[in-house]
């Protein structure tokens, strides 16, 4: 599998962001596509104008009114999806739509009653919820009155539920979008807080590890300086103690940093679920892994293998499905924990293993395991194995006396 020149981040950036302004012209057009289907209710007014049922002046006025209505509707609704107008301007534009719908329906007939659907949608999308809750039924009542005035209550009753329910449904969609935006912000905040907590934990660990050691080194350095002129033997002993404390502090820091950087298999499984779902890949992953008697080095090696495999599936394979299995097997070399990652994608274009797989093979061999990467007829399989029992010096608590 070779490196994909198009990073996964770029693929995510192609998605339409709900509740956020468009970032470019392409995204603006894609968002506009979600608005255009609603224009189906303009078919009746357009047909009415093209049928030449009115005088030339009335037809001209009808076209001007229809274009003004449609432009105002698209402007206010589309801007609400990005950078909304100020409150008073939104109210003024809704009032313009309301007046145009009433005037056109009363003057040109029942074919124009469908305009009240757009007025209801605009009320539900743009106005504050309290205002939307009373303007939507008011718009519905205005449509019914207009239908009664033009002597066509049948068409008005046919649109009654549409005008009423579509407005309230837009308030629900609006609150859903708002919740989505808030959840996105909350998730970013939680991630930031988690990162800060990890930094604080590492800072506390380093402080606890180095605080005593550095204080002892400072004290012994001062003692060695005082003893050096008259008691060189005692000063040499203090220097030897300083060397020993420094070496132990270095070992402690390395162990702390190693533990901080060591991935956990359970965490990588959760991350794999998120990554595959975000990439549109159907994920079949095991439940909480049983890591009884598995050493930290073996678990870490498997976690790195899973991370590398999922990265390759998401970035390079073009797969629609990925199956991850974690099983224990008894082999000639003893019990082994086997991780299998199989996808149905096409894989990369490279003929040999990439740097990621080469490094992963070395990491697994260092932990006493092995790696197999097999290109299938329809997909790719990666199998990583590590010893499933901890080293003897960690498991044996002693021998009988």
How many extended strands? 5
Taken from the alpha-carbon principal axes, the silhouette is: elongated
Main β-sheet, in a few words? Answer: 5 strands, mixed
Calculate Rg over CA atoms.
35 Å
Q: Averaging pLDDT over every residue, what do you get?
A: 78
What string, H for helix and E for strand, traces the elements in order? HHHHHHHHHHEHEEHEEH
Determine the N-to-C terminus distance.
Answer: 56 Å
Helix/strand structural class: alpha+beta
Relative strand content:
5-15%
Model regions low in confidence, pLDDT < 50 over at least 5 residues: 1-19, 392-401
How many helices does DSSP assign?
A: 13
Query: How much helix, percentage-wise, in residues?
Result: 55-70%
Strand order of the largest sheet: 1-2-3-5-4
Describe the structure.
The structure is a single chain. By secondary structure, the protein is an alpha+beta fold. 65% of the residues lie in helices and 10% in strands. The chain is built from 13 helices and 5 strands. Strand 1, helix 11 (296-317) and strand 2 form a beta-alpha-beta unit. The longest helix has 75 residues, at 153-227. The radius of gyration is 35 Å and the shape is elongated. Mean pLDDT is 78; it is low at 1-19 and 392-401.
């Amino acid at each position: 599998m070779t490196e994909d020149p198009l990073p996964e981040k770029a693929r995510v950036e192609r998605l339409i962001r709900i509740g956020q302004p468009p970032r470019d012209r392409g995204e603006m057009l894609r968002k506009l596509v979600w608005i255009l289907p609603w224009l189906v209710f303009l078919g009746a007014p357009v047909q009415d104008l093209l049928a030449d049922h009115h005088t030339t002046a009335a037809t001209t006025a009808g076209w001007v009114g229809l274009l003004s209505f449609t432009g105002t509707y698209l402007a206010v609704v589309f801007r609400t999806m990005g950078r909304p107008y100020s409150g008073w301007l939104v109210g003024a534009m809704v009032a313009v739509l309301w007046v145009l719908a009433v005037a056109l329906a009363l003057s040109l007939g029942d074919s124009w009653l469908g305009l009240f659907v757009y007025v209801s949608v605009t009320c539900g999308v743009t106005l504050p919820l309290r205002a939307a809750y009373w303007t939507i039924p008011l718009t519905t009542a205005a449509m019914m009155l207009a239908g009664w005035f033009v002597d066509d209550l049948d068409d008005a009753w046919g649109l009654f539920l549409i005008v009423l329910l579509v407005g309230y449904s837009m308030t629900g969609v609006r609150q859903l979008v708002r919740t989505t935006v808030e959840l996105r912000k909350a998730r970013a905040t939680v991630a930031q807080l988690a990162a800060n907590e990890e930094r604080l934990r590492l800072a506390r660990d380093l402080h606890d590890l180095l605080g005593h050691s550095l204080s002892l080194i400072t004290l012994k350095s001062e003692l060695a300086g005082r003893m050096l002129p008259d008691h060189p033997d005692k000063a040499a002993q203090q220097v030897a103690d300083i060397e020993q404390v420094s070496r132990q502090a270095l070992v402690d820091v390395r162990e702390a940093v190693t533990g901080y950087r060591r991935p956990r298999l359970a965490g990588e499984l959760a991350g794999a679920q998120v990554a595959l779902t975000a990439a549109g890949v159907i994920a079949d992953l095991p439940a909480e892994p049983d890591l009884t008697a598995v050493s930290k080095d073996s678990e870490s090696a498997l976690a790195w293998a899973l991370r590398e495999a999922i990265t390759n599936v998401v970035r390079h394979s073009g797969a629609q499905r990925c199956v991850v299995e974690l099983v224990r097997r008894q082999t000639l070399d003893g019990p082994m924990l086997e991780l299998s990652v199989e996808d149905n994608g096409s894989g990369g274009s490279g003929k040999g293993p990439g740097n990621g797989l080469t490094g992963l093979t070395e990491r697994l061999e260092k932990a006493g395991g092995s790696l197999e990467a097999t290109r299938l007829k329809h997909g790719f399989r990666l199998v990583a194995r590590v010893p499933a029992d901890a080293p003897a010096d960690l498991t044996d608590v002693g021998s009988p006396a």
